[in-house]
Structure formats: structure tokens, C-alpha cells
Amino acid sequence: MFEKLAEKLKPFILDEQEVIINEEEYSYELTIANTGELYGIVHIIDGEFVGFEKELDYEEEEDVLKSYIAEPNTEEMLQKAQLFVQTFLEQKVHFTMLNEWSSNNFMVTYEEKDPKLDIFIPHTGCTLYFNREGLLTTANINQRDVKLEYPNISISEDEAKLKLREANYVELTIYFSDEGEGAQLIYRPNHDIMGIGVNGEIQTVTEFMEAEKLEVQTVSPVTPKETLNEMLGVNSSLVQKVGEDGSTIWVDDNLGVEGEEEEALISYSDETGFFSFSNLPYVKDEHALKLSLEALKERALRVLSLAEGPIHEKYVLEEPVENLDEESESYLEDLETEEEFDDDGYIEPEPTQMFSFYRTYNGFKIEGFEAHVHVGLYSGLIRECSATRLTEQQELSLEKLKTVPTIPLHEAENRFFNEIEMELVRTVKEFHNPKVYDLSYIVSFPKTVGHIEKMNAHTGEVTYVDTGILKEVE
Questions:
Q1: CB–CB of 312/302 below 8 Å?
Q2: Which backbone phi and psi does 161 adopt, to 5 degrees?
Q3: Closest by alpha carbon to 121, among 138, 142, 101, 100?
Q4: Is the dihedral of CA 307, 309, 315, 316 positive or negative?
Q5: pTM for the full model?
Q6: Distance from first CA to last CA of the chain, Å, rounded?
Q7: Helix (H, G, I), strand (E, B) or coil at 332
Q8: What are the DSSP calls for 240-305, one per residue?
Q9: pLDDT tens-digit series, residues 65-112
């Protein structure tokens, strides 16, 4: 089997070198026959070839990137993709897209079609990745034996479009671009809405992931009762030092191994944003009880206020989902002493409760600025805290931002929906059963190159998502 597969793979190997497939304990290695050099990994499931990935060669990548100014060899990519399909796929598949995934990463997809409706079935066929010169770097043969359901289509494309508008698809938020521009009040699509079911129901990411839609709570002013060091668990047995990137760390010199770098038990950094962790081992107390959600929340509020100041003026708190995991409940039973390490010298971390905060201004969420706090369920120690932070210039621009839009919502919606069409597509019905497909209407923008990413609520300037599509089926 391996000899035949290696021969089939030869046209897709750099310089079409002879390769050998070696079965290792946990993988199948692809090596160059005459040198023994590792070329990549072959993926085989239940005796069936499902893809491979080339070992990343940094020098080779740099050489390819030097030719960045040259046009990508898309003709080579498409030819090799077609050859791969002819070599490895038995089912009938169709070319769907070639797009530039990143500066030196191009993706070609082939998919099967619904035999009755003549529409593509996502996650079937194959997905192939090429570098700029047209060398196949990763190949994935996607799932087969899918089940297609044919529900009654009770609404038309136009009716689906109307339902999308009624679902508040366009919403207001505050945005900072990566280019360092000031704060913008923008209209953008609702990121939770996936599409409209053919029965007229709104389909959301939250429901598809079987997650609970969480509300947000205002944050009350808090007065920290401890210092940051106390909340992290700093004690007299630890030695304070300077870590990487100027972070402050604490180590236990008694745990150091000669010749090895000391491992930080506690660390925090407060440069471009705040980040801390506390890996102090938890000593079992057989009478200890898990702290209440309210007590854990109070500790999360206190540490964030130490890091960020008056948080009631900056953040809202996403309704926390209480950690009820059975492993957390049995944690104290499994952990007998502080010295109970596994074979790698690593002690299992204390389970935590996570709290997520979102930065706001005048009631609007600021895109991309969040804080997350993990509190130890039993110790109450702040096991991790991270907060992205506005720069001084961003803070100043935020203060100048007018949060009343110049362009009213209905005009913004008109702009969006004049370019939107609804397209009937195959969609995975359930997250945990990806082989079963339903029918849905999703948003498409047939009149433009990309989807509308955002629209400035004051100037009306529209920004489109760069899809990177170089070629697609019409």
C-alpha cells in the first residue's frame, strides 16, 4: 500500500523526488528516498489516505517569499489541483474556488454537488494549499458519505432577505482600525446571524454551537481590599525577578534545576496591555468548599479594577456560566498533596471560573477590546487575567467621537440591503453531526468583489472584506 501511495504522491513533491512512507508510532512520515530527509506527514485513517502536509522549511519559505513581487503561479496550482483530484478522488467533484489565503498561501477547493438542486456541498471534495510558486504544501480530502435532507422550502429568496432585515442584521458599534486611525462609529453586520432557514427561522452561531446566548451586566464600582500581589498569591518564599519583555516574575529558587532556566510561578506585565498568571500549586484542604459564583465574581472585579482603574466606567460583564464540571467537583479528591506530580513533574492546575468583560463607551461595545479573568474555584487566587488596552491616542479620539450617527439606521440598512442577495446553499445541520446537511439562505454580494465589512455612521464610507478570491466558479 505504502509503495503505491508514495508513487502517486511523487508528482506533488518538490522536484518530483522519490519518497518513502514510514509508519511510526503515532504518525506516517514522508521522507526523501535517497537522503532520508523528512519531507512531511501523511494522514491515513482506517487504512485510507486522507491527505498530507509538507514539513515547513524556513529557508525554502524565505526563498519563495523573495519572489513575492512576482505573480503567483496560479496556472501551476490549478493544474496540480486537477491532477490531485484525478489521482485521489473517486467521487465526482467540481472546482469551486482559488483564493489567496495569505501572502504565501493559496487555497484551491473542489466540492461535490447536490444531484437534485445542483448546488455545492461544503466540506466535501478536497482542500489544497499551495505556496506562491505552485508547490502543494497541504492536502485534505474532506468528508464523504454525507446525508442530504430536503426540507420544504416555505419562503423565497426575497422573503428571506426581508426576514434578515427584520432580525436587525445591521447594528452600531465602535471600531478602531489596525492602521492606527481614530475611533469610528460604524454600522456592521450582526456577527451572530449565520443565515435564514428555508422555513423562515433565523439561524445563529450561538444556536448552532448549542451555546447559551449570554446577556451583559453593568459593573458596579469596587474597592480592592488586597494588593495585586496578594490576589496572585505572592508570598515570602518566592523571589521577585525581571522576566521576558520586562515582565515581573516570581520564582521559587528551591524548585530550580541546575542548568535549567527558572520557571515563573507568578508573572505580570503591564506594558501595552495587562497580563498575569499564577501557577502556584494548590494544597489540598479536605474541608475546602468551592467558592460561590458571587464571591468569585467579586474577586474578578477587584483584580480588574487594580489593573484597569474605574472599571464601572469602562466595562460590562458577560453573564458568567458557572463552572459545574464534574472534574472540578472531584478536584480535591484527586489532589492529595502539593507534591503529587505526574511523570513529567507537572501538577494538575486548579479548575477556575472565567469572567469575560467587554470595553464600552456611551453604551456601545468597542470592537476587539476585552478582559478575561480566571479565578481559582477553591483558592480564590487570580489564576489568569488579561486585558487589551486602548492607547493614549485612542482614548483621546474616543472622547472626541460623536456617538449619535449622522446617517440613520434605515439609510444604512438600505445601503447594505441594496447590495445583498440571499443564496440557497447546503449547510451543516448540527455542529456535532457534520455529515447531515440542511438547506439555508445565506448572504451573498453578487454586485461587488467582497462583502461589506463596515460603514462609517458619520461619513457613509463603506469598507469591503478582501476575500482574496482569484478565481471562482460562476
A1: no
A2: -65, -40
A3: 142
A4: positive
A5: 0.84
A6: 39
A7: helix
A8: EEE-GGG-EEEE-GGG--TTSPPPPSEEEEESSEEEEEE-PPPPP-TT--PPPHHHHHHHHHHHHH
A9: 666 667 899 999 999 999 999 999 999 999 999 999 887 899 999 999
